[in-house]
Design a protein that fits this description.
This protein is mainly α. The protein contains 10 helices and 4 strands; from the N terminus they run H-H-H-H-H-H-H-H-H-E-E-H-E-E. The radius of gyration is 33 Å and the shape is extended. It comes from Cyprinus carpio.
Length: 377
């Protein structure tokens, strides 16, 4: 009696197992179709999706910042109003309107870099080091905003000076970046390929990882620690925040080094910050260019730019600088096609053997057929 029952149970389990496999295959097929349609939609509308995603990213950032900072702002406003009310209660001879005018004038002068307190009145915003710091901050588009021109002539000069200086600075930074890129990126990647036997993609990923780690250590973590030691009122997080807003050219005015120290210390910190800005921006541009050359980053860029972007490659900027022997040469643009399109599976005629000629006068090697090789003299 137990055998038929056992066999019936096994057959039922096998039936349900096969049915479950069918449903699983159908669900997998449906998921694959939906994923393919979603990927096709993203490829067609990639740029639009990126713009929408960026807009949502900005809105989410604003909402999160509002949620985090608005309670602190309300608390600070309440404390200031209580302090003002307590001062008026302790000094009944002072009118509220007179106190408001005094506070407005003091705050306006403070925003323009002029201190109203006697202890900070010896601070000069336009000595040489302060002016150099101001110019570097403007030319690198950091613009901390702690120091502003007080005269109309100074404002006009800043406008004209920056109209010429900002493009000149960008040109200098771009030239230095492209000059350093072969030494900092291309040569190490080539050495990793030759000596370690890595593929170019893996070598580039390893090099960019090491480069990013060294940059974060030398230009963010260590300078933040030094600022934390020099500025007694700053925490390590505040020092790291200053380094980030400086090298990202955000330049918020809430943190500036040397404001609570002597004049000589402030001048030294301003000069060091000016050098830190220029050197740090050059290094960050080199790191960004190194990451930009990664295959994964290029694939993402092509995905959002469209399938036809980058198919036609003309002459690059470096190739425009030709030697005297190649002045008349003109490179034809070429299309990057798949290997299956360039080389078919079989050839109807036998391939003609080719011989690679040696380079002549710096020209690249020329591949010639055996019949076209000139006889040796």
């Amino acid at each position: 009696m137990s055998k038929p029952r056992f066999g019936y149970t096994c057959s039922t389990l096998m039936f349900y197992h096969s049915l479950l496999r069918q449903y699983t295959n159908k669900i997998s097929l449906i998921m694959a179709i939906l994923a393919d349609k979603a990927l096709t939609f993203l490829r067609v509308h990639a740029f639009t999706c990126m713009m929408i995603a960026y807009g949502l990213f900005v809105v989410i950032g604003a909402v999160v910042l509002m949620i985090l900072e608005q309670p602190e702002e309300n608390l600070l406003v309440k404390e200031v109003r209580e302090l003002k009310a307590r001062f008026l209660a302790d000094n009944p001879c002072v009118e509220e309107s007179s106190l408001d005018r005094l506070l407005m004038n003091v705050l306006s002068a403070s925003k323009r870099g002029v201190a109203a307190l006697e202890s900070a009145s010896d601070k000069c915003n336009f000595d040489f080091t302060s002016s150099l710091f101001f110019v570097i901050a403007f030319l690198t588009t950091t613009g901390y905003g702690s120091t502003v021109p007080l005269s109309d002539e100074g404002r006009v000069f800043c406008v004209v000076y920056c109209l010429v200086g900002i493009p000149f600075t960008l040109l200098l930074l771009s030239s230095l970046t492209h000059a350093l890129l072969p030494w900092v990126t291309h040569t190490p990647i080539h050495n990793l390929q030759v000596f370690w036997g890595l593929s170019r993609n893996h070598a580039a990923l390893l090099h960019c990882s090491v480069l990013a780690f060294c940059t974060a250590t030398l230009f963010f973590l260590l300078p933040a620690g030094a600022l934390c030691l020099l500025e007694n009122d700053w925490s390590y997080l505040e020092s790291l925040y200053f380094c980030f807003i400086s090298l990202s050219t955000t330049g918020l005015v809430d943190y500036l080094p040397g404001r609570t120290q002597s004049r000589a210390a402030r001048q030294g910190l301003e000069f060091a910050t000016s050098c830190y800005l220029m050197l740090g921006l050059i290094v960050l541009l080199v790191v960004m260019e190194s990451f930009w050359e990664l295959q994964q980053v290029q694939a993402i860029q092509r995905f959002f730019a469209g399938p036809r972007q980058g198919e036609l490659k003309g002459v690059g900027l470096d190739e425009l600088v030709l030697s005297g022997d190649m002045a008349g040469a003109e490179e034809e643009p070429h299309y990057t096609l798949p290997i299956s399109t360039i080389s078919p599976a079989f050839s109807e005629s036998p391939a003609t053997p080719t011989i690679e000629l040696p380079p002549i006068f710096g020209l690249p090697p020329i591949a010639a057929t055996k019949e076209n090789v000139p006889p040796s003299l």
